[in-house]
Amino acid sequence: MTPGEFFPAVQRDEASAAFFDAAARGELLVWRCPRSGDVLGPQVRTCPSCGSASLEPVLASGRGTLVSWAVVHQAPVPTLAPAVPYVTGVVELDEGAWLMVRLVGCEGHELAAGTPVSVRFLPSGPPQDQPPGEVLVAFAPAAAR
Amino acid sequence: MTGAAIAGLGMTELGKVYGRSSADLAAEAVRLAAADAGLELSELDGVLVSSGIKQDVGVNLASVLALGELGLLAQVNAFGATAGVMVAQAAQAIAAGAATAVACVFADTPLRPQRPAGSAWGAPRGGASQPRGLSGWGLASGAASPNILYALCARRHMERYGTTSAQLAEVAVAQRAWAAGNPLAAMREPLTTEGHQASRWIAEPLHLLDCCLVSNGAIAVVVTSAGRAKGLRRPPVHVWGYGQAHAPRQLQAGSAWGLVTPAVRSGPQAMAMAGIGVDDVDICELYDCYTYTVLVTLEDYGFCAKGEGGAFVGGGRLAPGGKLACNTGGGQLSAYYMWGMTPLSEAVIQARGDGGDRQAPRNDVILVSGNGGILEHHSTLVLSPHPGRAAA
User: Fold this and answer.
1) What is the span of the domain harbouring residue A116?
2) Chain A residues within an 8 Å CB radius of B124
């Protein structure tokens, strides 16, 4: 594992249980607004197009393109110190939602706006942790393996 | 025209000021601003309070200052846009007859001895707890500080318009040259593009010298009616116009986040109220949490077309002797970080002609911006030493 693939352990709460259960199964759970049809990120609570708060969970394809990225050299919080340097970015899913995610399998210099990316599911925290950290959603350039 | 004027300015010691609370500094700044205006504290009948990173000063400031009956008292927070919002709110309260002399104050003490400035913003408030839930996933994903989020915005602009880090350096270099003339500036040694480029990466594409300082201290202004200000101790700084606009980050296809900011609405609003256009502006005091913020604000205000900010700031345009005096005190990049009070305080100093070695050649029309969140909140002021356009 390179430093950029280190994730501090993340614990679930009630609101995130379905999202993390899906991630553990290798699925990306997002929201869809039945009224506008917009697909929205997991943290969205209100549809920006129509104002509806009645969103339904839906599985995303896990494919998208890169909107922007940054190569982080100075850890913003102590828990991310083991991860630097890492690449973090904004991904636009094929369905339209933007996710702010870690980018793995790249160093940054090979990226460009529009680079095809696909989802990865990676463990968080040290493997010996009890309870174990949740499986997290990250992305990688689609060409990377 | 708004009928309001800034009559007093109070600034405490700024920067590495340790051992004093934010409330204590806020109280000192209000005292200094009132004294500067030639007003007794008891003549203030309005106070607007803005707290910074630490969020530890509020309406209790009125008790700290033992103020009497007030017609206006509130804590205001639109992050970096707050200073302009406070002045607009004060002007509106004065026009409505709710108050006659309103102190607007910002105070913050995020810097601690022996702790890096970078830890002030990133450190979780309320203790280090384990990342939890979707916000925990967000933190673990790594875009966990303004530095990184602004880096994402700058990168987006670079990808779309070909803006370069060397162009961002032009902003930092110009402001450092202005800071050389400001005795209050923290960083006054000359800076070159090479020096900027050699500074360490914080979050690519942002170098250390693309990022603002972090400072302790407090700054206050006193707003009164223009008529009242005329009879006070210092020459009035007239508020010709104000504007504010907000656009919470939209994370969805088609979002302009990072490329276009609410300045695009706030600026024209303020300039229309003032009856001016960008060609009339002599001095810009622009919120500069990052070099990129200055560049994108210039575009959104209409000083150049969208996407041309990089070329626009080139050739020393913003530097002393350049075509557009901008951030004449060194700004938050080189002088001191007091949120929107940094550009506002420097605008008052320039409008009064108190700039000393850094006084801009013309000061008839001064444009002041505030930017908050991650390019999500914006305020604009148009200030002038003249009561109206005819006198300018």
Assistant:
1) 3-141
2) 77
Residues 6+ apart with CB under 8 A from B228: B5, B7, B100, B101
What are the chain A neighbours of B141 within 8 Å (beta carbons)? Answer: 88, 100-102, 136, 138
* Contact list, B206 vs chain A (CB under 8 Å): 70
Q: Which of B242, B292, B301, B337 is catalytic?
A: B337
Superfamily for B4-112+214-226? Thiolase/Chalcone synthase (3.40.47.10)
Query: Cβ of B137 and A40 within 8 Å?
Result: no
Q: DSSP characters for A38-103?
A: -EE-TT--S-TTT-----EEEEE-SEEEEEEEEEE-S-SSGGGGGG-SEEEEEEEETTSBEEEEEE
Q: Which of B129, B135, B141, B296 to mutate to test the interface with A (most CBs of A within 10 A)?
A: B141
- Residue of A137, A86, A92 lying closest to A115 (CA atoms): A92
Instruction: Dig out the tokens for B50 from the structure.
Output: 């803005």
Q: How far is CA B175 from CA A93, B20, B27, B316, B333, in A?
A: 40, 29, 30, 10, 7
- The one-letter amino acid at B167: Q
The per-residue b/e assignment along A42-64, b for 16 or more CB within 10 angstroms, e otherwise, is bbbeebbeeeeeebeeeebebbb
Shortest alpha-carbon distance between residue A79 and chain B (Å): 8
Q: Where are the domains of chain B?
A: 4-112+214-226
- CA-closest candidate to residue B361, choices B316, B312, B324, B317: B324
Residues β-bridged to residue A87 = A71, A103
Q: Which two tokens stand for residue B333?
A: 């990049």
- For B11-47, the pLDDT digits (tens) are 999 999 999 999 999 999 999 999 999 999 999 999 9
Supply the ipTM of this predicted assembly.
0.97
Size of interface A-B (CB pairs under 8 A): 146
Contact B142 A92 (CB under 8 A): no
Q: How many structural domains comprise chain A? A: 1
| pLDDT for the residue numbered B127 | 43
Contact A41, A33 (CB under 8 A): no
Instruction: Exactly one of B287, B290, B292, B336 is catalytic; name it.
Output: B287
Residue B321: which pLDDT band, with cuts at 50, 70 and 90?
very high
On chain B, the residues whose CB falls within 8 A of the CB of A12 are: 132-133
Residue in chain A closest to B254 (alpha carbons) equals A96
- pLDDT in the model for residue A40: 98
**pLDDT for B379-390, tens place per residue?**
999 999 999 987
Residue B232 has pLDDT above 70, yes or no: yes
Q: Is B290 a catalytic residue?
A: no
Amino acid identity at B202: I
Contact between A102 and B142 under an 8 Å Cβ cutoff? The reply is yes
DSSP state of B304: S
pLDDT band at B391 (very low <50, low <70, confident <90, very high): low
